[in-house]
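Task: fold both queries, return tokens.
Query 1:
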Amino acid sequence: TARNLPAIYPDEYEGLVTDLAEKAEATRSSLIEVLKHIHPDRPLCRGDAEHPTCLTGEQYTSCINFLRYFRAADNAGHVFSTNYDLLLYWVHMEDLQSRGNNLNLADGFTREEDSLIWKENAWPNYPQNIHYLHGAFYMVNGGQEVVKLKPSSGRATIIEELDASGRMPLYVSEGLSKAKRAKIAESSYLN
């Protein structure tokens, strides 16, 4: 990334490094704006006219019914997603918080202090069964860890949290397979 270039290139390329860093931030900001316009900002509508971009009860039920095909009668199936969006995240959160986790979905994140951190085999008795093969918009790299963003008290939505974090979401969008493999290798979650 542009942040790494000063260590690689001598001072005479400082203008280029600054330009690339500005372009990287503009790209991140543009992505955030697109996400604000096309993704539900809440898991389920509860009659709140202020937040029209949320799932209706009918849409939620449709998603749950669709996911049941992948969970099998014994709930032993896994859900693999190549989408980066928040739909599966919101359905999972709604099922977990309001519906008693009927689908027994687990995304592998565990609470550590004030963060949600992904850990392989975080819950041995409740193994991960949701896998975002190319990452997701609610995940960011947190140094050596992958962090799951959640709305904080000051921000109402995941997208606002992503914007405030100043980080790019963890997702694979590279065009060439070699570049995709390199991106996947950088992340403990994707690898």
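Query 1 returned. Query 2:
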Amino acid sequence: IPRSACESVASACPVLDNVAVMLWIVIPQDPAGAARGGVLDWLVDLATQPGAVETLVAIAILSGFGLAFRSTLRWVETVRSRSAIEDYLLGVEQALSLDLQSARERLERVTQQDPDNQYARLLLGKVLLELGEPAQAHQQHSLLQHSFAVASPENELQLARALLATGRAQEAATTADAALARHKDHAGLTE
């Protein structure tokens, strides 16, 4: 391997600087000789170079640490995901049993842990409206509609209810009419 190739790798990623230089030192610099002797001879020559085995062991150890770190990150993410799902389901249970304040706290925690959880956000908006906090409910339903592009009739009607509760009757009527027009075939919209 030409030294210039190792140096270009090292300049592209400074962390690889020592590895690139070590590889340049370790790998035989006579590619024609390596080709003549075959791959087995090349490997034997590589193994007899000073520091070659140590370099390969160091690379293997670093790779092992990297894989272990990645595996640990995946495991932590899985645990967090399961925790968020558990919190969401407990929030649903609390909302259904009309323990609205506890449901609110739990669902807020879920949306903090998993901001993309649209179901938790929708239920949080319903709970907030039931608790008499229509402005916060409107915020959740608007976020679903505008940021997440959720076009569900349930969210649109909850948004209309939140608008009505905040005193914006005309906007609520427009939102409800638009939901009815878009989702004519949806059962339960006319209730």
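Both queries returned. Flag for query 2: The first helix runs from residue 3 to 12.
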